[in-house]
Amino acid sequence: MISFLGLCIQNLIQTIKYILGGNVKRDSVMARAAMISYDSLPIALSIVFIAAVVIALQVSKQFLMTGAESYVGGFLAIALVRELAPGFAALAISARAGTAVSAEIANMKVTSQVDALKTLKVDPVGYYFAPRIIAGAITIPMVVVLAELFGILGGMIVSYFAIGLHPNRYMSSVWLWLNTRDIYISIFKGFLFGIVIPLVCATQGYKTKGGAKGVGISTTQAAIKATVFLLMTDLIVTFIFYVIN
Asked: What is the reported pTM?
């Protein structure tokens, strides 16, 4: 895992040099953005919405028993914005689009398309990695924000039907507990996740060897490694912003 992390860093540095060289085409970035985030939007929003609904069902009646039902919205908003929405949305995108990125690049590697680019004196790492990383870094924070809105909305609906909590009281609690710093940090997490997912999955695909079997193994490994690195990134960011500060 350590050696793989070093390989990811090496590829990231090479990709940054490729980007700074002005070699990335806008159409390529837009196509990858659609594949990574837009196509993954329904599943990401659905997962966060369901998670918010389940949590609201679990805690609303407990809050009602202690007379603190007005704080359901604030509690849920903090949980969603700080952890659940960025984490669940990123994991959904990783499962949906990250594995596709790995399989696509792995297929190119085993069919010698990478060697063809080298023959044409084109940097294959920059050519394959740059559009995907740029697309992920730009669009995944947008998915995170939408997931937060959907999650808060889901909690409001459930709280109303489960314990009769009026939407005005629910939203007042949300605005009372939530602050802009939490939102900025969640967007920053989305930005980092947008880099980690395509970087890890593309790196795994790029190191594929063998034929179709190797593509399948790389796709599985990409899903596992992307999950591990996403959780590690989340832990580091949370520790920096909520423990040290």
From this structure: 0.88
